[in-house]
Design a protein that fits this description.
- About 25% of the residues lie in helices and about 15% in strands.
- The protein is an alpha+beta fold.
- The strands form two sheets. The chain has a three-stranded antiparallel beta sheet with strand order 1-3-2. Strands 4-5 form a two-stranded antiparallel ribbon.
- A hairpin with a 2-residue loop joins strand 4 and strand 5.
- It is flat.
Length: about 90
């Protein structure tokens, strides 16, 4: 799906969707890892089965980048001065 279509579905095109429509935009690629899931779960203070993950073949898993961003403390709607994270963008895992 083209990036523009994804942004349109989320109400994130310029002039669309109020404050969430004023976005410089960024997209994260979901990382593919091998063998470090227990360490990620430990850092997030949760069990490994709670971490959103998807099979990626050859003993690897794909993690949800949005979940990782939220675990780092960057939650939906967070504001720092004139910069902010959309109130809608981090919920797709």
């Amino acid at each position: 799906m083209p990036v523009r279509s994804i942004r349109e579905q989320k109400g994130m095109l310029v002039g669309q969707g109020g404050p969430d429509g004023r976005s410089a935009g960024s997209f994260f690629k979901n990382p593919v890892i091998r063998g470090t899931l227990p360490q990620i779960a430990l850092r997030a203070a949760c069990r490994p089965e709670v971490v959103p993950q998807y099979p990626a073949g050859e003993g690897r898993v794909k993690l949800a980048a949005a979940w990782l961003v939220e675990q780092a403390g960057f939650t939906r709607g967070l504001r720092m001065g004139r910069a902010a994270i959309s109130s809608r963008t981090l919920s797709r895992w």
